[in-house]
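Entry:
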Amino acid sequence: MADTIQENNYMVNDLAARGKQEFFPGQVLSCVQQGNDFLLTCDNGVQLSVQVITDKILRFRYATEVGFAADFSYAVPADQPRPAVEFLEFREKPDHYRITTDRLICTLAKENLRVRVLDRSGNVLSSDEKGFHWEYDYETGNDIVKMSKQVQSGVHYYGLGDKPDNMNLRGKRFTNWGTDTYGYTKGSDPLYKNIPFYLELQQKTAHGIFFDNTFKASFDFAAERADVTSFWAMGGEMNYYFIYGPSLLEVTQEYTRLTCPPEMPPMWALGYHQCKWSYFPESNFRDIAKGFRDRKIPCDALYLDIDYMDGYRCFTWSPTHFPDPKKMVRELAEDGFKTIVIIDPGIKIDPQYSVYTEALANDYFCRRADGPLMKGSVWPGLCNFPDFTRPDVRDWWAGLFKGLIAEDGVRGVWNDMNEPAVFEKGTFPDDVRFSYDGHSASHKKAHNIYGMQMARATAAGVKQFSYPNRPFTITRSTYAGGQRYSSAWTGDNIASWEHLWLANIQCQRLSISGFSFIGSDVGGFIDTPDGELYVRWVALAAFHPFFRTHSSGDHGDQEPWSFGEQYLDLARGFIELRYRLLPYMYTTFWQYVEQGTPVLRPLTFLDQNDTETYLRMAEFSLGDHLLVCPITQAGADGRWMYLPRGDWFYYWTDEAKAGGAEVWASAPLDRIPLFVKAGAVIPMYPLMQYVGEKTVEELTLHVYYKNGTESSVVYDDGGEGYGYQQGQSTTRRFTVAGTPTSLTLTQAIEGDYQPSFTTYRIVLHGLSFGPGQATVDGGGGTLAEATTDTGLTLPELVVPSSFTTVAIAANVEKAS
């Protein structure tokens, strides 16, 4: 008996010891190929599955002695079609196996399963240091899975979602564990979003790592040891994708296509939005709408925060504050306003509340490990929380939107508090159980995807009941792939110059992390900005895809007119510029949907061969041809900024600048440093107070001279409905070709969609010669003079929107 007790004690002690011990793969015994998949088995039971997803994407999936779990991912849709692998070769060498694709070489060491990935020229892109290893966690029974890689020479790191820190992540460590971080500051970690994808640039060649693991995960970018970068998670699998560029832009494209871009939003969603915690009662909400129209400030969407509800019960209206919501929403819509309402995950425990009783009767709420329902306090008081990882719960949740959307006319839904957040506790306890779409899990595994799955269910409901219009949703928390379901904002920021700086960085970082439909609370959610800070923030946000002022009611008013007439006029000017640029913004979003290109692109993405761009973070491009650099200091009347190589024009003055150098951009309060790439064609709408207010009868094309050639594109599908998915769209491709004495603009039209406009007003910028003669498709054209919105007098001509070639020749007499 004593021997048995000793033996049992030894077993317990052994488990405790194992909890502090690192384990590694053993000697590889075999490697079996099945199509594009390879399975390596070690003598200690460790297995590695290598999947060749495309010529540029390799997936590495490790199993310890317990074997592989079911293959399931919320980030990567299982039914997504993949391009065929062009070339695949497998060879066994004395000390390693080698897999070769059209773009990559992957070697797998027989001794210890360590991985190296090289390009086809033999340059090492990624090399394991310890490689895969793990610890056994006695408390949870999970493996703490780890991966460490050698730091290659001259390496830089980017991405990882909403981290509020320098653009280049080298020397930093971060954790993904979605957290309601009220009033975060630079360096705060973790935040709301969980996007375990980063990009690595070394020797001017880029690749990415996507660690598809939903447990709490950490990333060390050569912080602890200067020669090692690593990532690990507190459970689940070591399951990551290696994504080759070789350009940074291509890495983000490949990642975005892997996790799938969104559908096209309605164009109005790219307009200006106004929000506050909270606008109530109805008279106040209507006054805000009237304030915009009376002052002629363009605006498309107004938001209702939690106080529109009856006692904070989701899917209800306060009978006191909003006695006739259907009438209010309809009348606001007649004036061009779309009403957006907030919906949180916490469902008030109230036996008189039908949403609660229905969920209770169907057992839709999350439960603790021993069976009780998960209870937590949020705005309504004690709440239960739906398990959005169950398909039937998502279907039920989607159906709840019939009243708000189909019956009341609400046009969009805003999901908040979905990290999930619980007052005074932070989030759910670890023992809360989830279905995880049939792969039963605790909160440790489901926490990071809870907000994403809530957004998924919400998006399904809004889409169902908005049809034939397109849906609009916004979320605070998400996971990789969450861009399929929602737009997002950067959370509870502060009215400070530091947070204006952070908004610029965070929106760029999210964009290159596959999530482009992003913005910040303009002016700051916490505290109150002064007029100067507010205007500078509006100026930046006018170039962010999601453009919304939002503030806490505790800190005063934050409408564009709240700071006096001087600042009102300035803010209005930037909002008007945004509305004129909507066809450019919409086209850039279409490129994101079709090609996976980020809407916002940091300077490094514009020229990774220029080492001057590696540590810079203020400058970014919106799409292909606009370069923006915000003013983030009080009292500044301009700033030094770096122009990428090439030729540029300063938007406000048409001053020509050569890139590859720092330039001074003069920017009093009515300007933001904004440059246009030489050769660009920038489409602009006439000014409207909301999308669809006027029929666009003429599209203005601002054509910028280049001594050489440059291509541009303008996409149009009407901005609403689903006809574009059946081909009802038009893509107009423009080419500018310039010489010292001529400029030629050609157009190629694809698609049968007929836009409302029938003519272009072509405005010519930066010509190096005095224009004399214009020809349109071989016939005569009439040059006139135009005064632009920036006060410049420039040559222009009006041509049919179906033209093929416009040619501008120098004035021979003036030239001679």
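Confidence is low (pLDDT under 50) at residues 1-12.
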